[in-house]
């Protein structure tokens, strides 16, 4: 129990304690510049100012990277210390001055992104796209059930939730027509879950799947916006490029991996025997997260993360099995999260079945892909050990016309 008065429905209770970077918003227009960006922990409707409370410069850098680089022992000790502060009334007088209303802060990018990798790990999503684009052929490519398919993205365009989604421009080509240059006509969303690497690894060494919690600090939400028409024309033979590199949005709060013990589940049964480096039978890291996607305020999908075929631990093992080095601040994403029902698909290309079945919105309009002015918000929750639900906050973006 905490001495704080928490809302009964808060997703930011003691079982969560997510980390973020914030500044104090000016009191009024024209007032002094807000204070320096620093580390905070969400608790109820407040942010606990770790820099102010601890005086530790690692929490005053404006990024979680320096703290994450201290490693799992420091992560655990800090989490235990924060829990003690918020549960033992003896700390109340000292802690209270460092509790700031969340409504009074401005969130910043939580990490300095080193590298960014995106995977393709939802079987339902992969089969849906296979049926659309390879009719009459098996929906999955031959390698899909043997390894987590992924590609390297552009870390420089990973940005904080709320960053405007400028409609990308590039080449596209309609059937039987020459290629043209212009704004994407098929701008899409991808509801994903991101994993933040805290500890680096040495070049030439592989990270085992069982060591996942020793390297990954926490989890955030990701919308990996996609220009489907640009991607369709450019991706053969080397994969995504301009159709994916223009913006990837992340949520401001990073939920510690330690908060997700009650969310761990067995992943789906595997079709093929796993190669030894991907074997996870003794320590499975499926996660029972419930996502929700809203378009202009209307819920259009509820994708379930528990059904993801490849887990984050297996993705980490595959990403490093060739000796690729991890860096503090690396971000890798799950790929689009989709379920087996039409209302659980995590992208518009699936929800509208490539434009053949447009979504109907309450105002009478329809969508196959995003229009200028559309706003998409993705949220997620997970079970907590105390029976409550943990919140991951939200990742939001509004589409603005091409520049």
TrEMBL record:
Cofactors (names): Mg(2+); Ca(2+)
Domain Fumarylacetoacetase-like C-terminal: start-end pairs: 117-399
Example of a GO MF term: fumarylacetoacetase activity
Pathway assigned to this chain's UniProt record: Amino-acid degradation; L-phenylalanine degradation; acetoacetate and fumarate from L-phenylalanine: step 6/6
Coiled coil stretches, renumbered: none
InterPro entries: Fumarylacetoacetase, Fumarylacetoacetase-like_C, Fumarylacetoacetase_C_sf, Fumarylacetoacetase_N, Fumarylacetoacetase_N_sf
Domain of life: Bacteria
PANTHER family listed in its UniProt record: FUMARYLACETOACETASE
Residue span, Fumarylacetoacetase N-terminal domain: 15-110
Region feature Disordered, mapped onto this chain: 160-183
Species for this entry: Actinoplanes oblitus
Gene3D superfamilies: Fumarylacetoacetase, N-terminal domain, Fumarylacetoacetase-like, C-terminal domain
Protein name: fumarylacetoacetase
UniProt KW keywords: Calcium, Hydrolase, Magnesium, Metal-binding, Phenylalanine catabolism, Tyrosine catabolism
Record EC number: 3.7.1.2
């Amino acid at each position: 129990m905490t001495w704080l008065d928490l809302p009964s429905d808060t997703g930011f209770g003691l079982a969560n304690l997510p980390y973020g970077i914030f500044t104090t918003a000016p009191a009024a227009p024209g007032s002094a510049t807000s204070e320096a960006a620093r580390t905070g922990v969400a608790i109820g409707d407040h942010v606990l100012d770790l820099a102010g409370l601890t005086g530790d410069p690692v929490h005053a850098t404006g990024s979680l990277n320096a703290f994450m680089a201290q490693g799992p022992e420091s992560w655990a000790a800090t989490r235990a210390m924060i829990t003690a502060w918020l549960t033992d009334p003896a700390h109340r007088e000292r802690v209270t001055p460092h509790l700031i209303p969340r409504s009074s802060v401005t969130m910043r990018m939580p990490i300095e992104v080193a590298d960014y990798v995106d995977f393709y790990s939802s079987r339902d999503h992969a089969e849906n796209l296979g049926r659309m684009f390879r009719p009459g052929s098996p929906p999955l490519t031959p390698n899909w059930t043997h390894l987590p398919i992924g590609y390297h993205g552009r870390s420089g365009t990973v940005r904080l939730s709320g960053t405007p989604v400028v409609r990308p421009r590039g080449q596209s080509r309609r059937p039987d027509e020459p290629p043209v240059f212009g704004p994407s006509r098929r701008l899409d969303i991808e509801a994903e879950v991101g994993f933040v690497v805290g500890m680096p690894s040495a070049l030439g060494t592989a990270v085992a799947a069982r060591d996942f919690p020793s390297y990954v600090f926490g989890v955030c939400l990701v919308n990996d916006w996609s220009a489907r028409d640009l991607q369709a024309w450019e991706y053969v033979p080397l994969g995504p490029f301009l159709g994916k590199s223009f913006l990837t949005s992340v949520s401001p709060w990073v939920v510690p991996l330690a908060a997700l013990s009650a969310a761990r589940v067995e992943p789906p049964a595997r079709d093929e025997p796993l190669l030894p480096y991907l074997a996870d039978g003794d320590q499975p890291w499926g996660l029972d997260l419930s996502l929700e996607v809203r378009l202009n305020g209307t819920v259009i999908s509820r994708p379930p993360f528990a059904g993801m075929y490849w887990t984050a631990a297996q993705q980490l093992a595959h990403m490093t099995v060739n000796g690729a080095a991890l860096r503090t601040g690396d971000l890798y994403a799950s790929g689009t999260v989709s379920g087996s029902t039409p209302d659980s698909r995590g992208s518009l290309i699936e929800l509208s079945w490539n434009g053949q079945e447009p979504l109907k919105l309450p105002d009478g309009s329809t969508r196959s892909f995003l229009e200028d002015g559309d706003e998409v918000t993705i949220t997620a929750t997970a079970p907590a050990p105390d029976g409550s639900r943990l919140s991951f906050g939200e990742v939001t973006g509004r589409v603005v016309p091409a520049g």
